[in-house]
Write a structure and sequence with these properties.
The protein is 54% helix and 8% strand. It is of the alpha/beta class. The protein folds into 4 domains: 180 residues, P-loop containing nucleotide triphosphate hydrolases (Rossmann fold); 62 residues; 91 residues; 58 residues, no CATH class.
Amino acid sequence: MKDTLERPWVEKYRPQSIKEMAIPQAKVSGHRVALDEELRTFIKTFLTEIQNINEKNKKIRIYNRTVEDKKQKKELSVPPEKSAVLLEGPPGVGKTSIVYALANDLNMEVIETNASDTRTRDALESKLKETVKSRGIMDFIVQSKAKLILIDEIDGIYGVTDRGAVPAVLDLIENTQFPIIMCSNDYKRNLQTLYNKIRKIEISALSKDEILKVVKRILKKEKIDNFNPKDLNYIIEKNEGDLRGTINDLQGIYQGGLDTDTSELIYQLNRDNNEEIFSLIRELFQDARTLQQARNITDKSDVDYNFLYKWINENLPTFIKKTNELKTAYENLSLADEVFGRIRKNQYWSLLPYFYDLFSGGVVLARKYHPENEGFRRINFPRFTSTGFFSLTVAEHSFVEKIQEKYNVSEIEIIQNLLPFLRKLTSDSRKYLKLVSDWFDLDAKEKKLLTK
């Protein structure tokens, strides 16, 4: 297997215990706290309280069966501020890692979902509701591990009252049988109702010294002793407290070859380099005709595999126009997502080549029709970057604002659902295009979004 398909160091050296972690500084309501102790206390307190409440609820249910409705007692629940906690801080500082490390220390099983992938109430409920409210049948047969619920990228959801995921999250918190830890990169005003209910821990970027300790330990385990200290400092400074980014760059540099001009390589290495990714996407969709050609294109790239996956997902409709081909491409992309889920959950990194083949080769080979002269195809930025932030153009921002003047719809709903619908509606009808443009008072640039 080629180096680019080897197990990523960020996964290979993910801490298995709190003792192995570089613990970032944390604050609650402006006061410094020890993050590991804060989370450990939260989990143990919840488990004690839920056990007591479950015992009381058993007695309440027995009582309620013997009296008329108006005399029945309401069942108890753990208060939201004791049921869930939010870790808010920049990407790459170890928010997810500390959850898994702590779960290992406490012999707990982590049930994880990514909120930016389940942004509607139905999707989130189907993913977590049964897990949170009940125990599996095997729990009654064998002594199973306690569960810890992790909802990552909670800032990736924006809820509205009737169909958003925020009310679903609040329902889950109120009914949960297991402690819930949520992670976010940023404060979002739209999530204020959630912030008001739960405890928030603000996490700072890791210090340069803490990151240096971690990367030196990795280099030692990889038996790399010829890495220039100045280059190492350059990588750390370049990533500005992002440990995950530092480790990814470190692996990229080592696999690129330490016998080259390392400083120049560090300067050029940028996992999100726009020029490189634009070229890569065009090569995949326009030049690749076989699986091997697709492999060759992805193998030569230093672009982070998860980031590349998002770019391909975003640009499918740009290059694949036929409905049946688009359907096949999305099915292959869905399979790739499923494979990567198994890789993350079970640490089956030997499956990574299949993930690559499905999201690059499988998607590219779904395209059967290649016109002789394709002309210029615009490459679009993925809606979620590798750091989880949602990105819009100036025209898209103003378009969203005009939609929201008339309807209570989230930014993500507009871009991912409403805008594609309006494009379809107006694509074959000048009349509908004029009606929609007049209704929302769109200017020329905003109107152009409907004709892409």
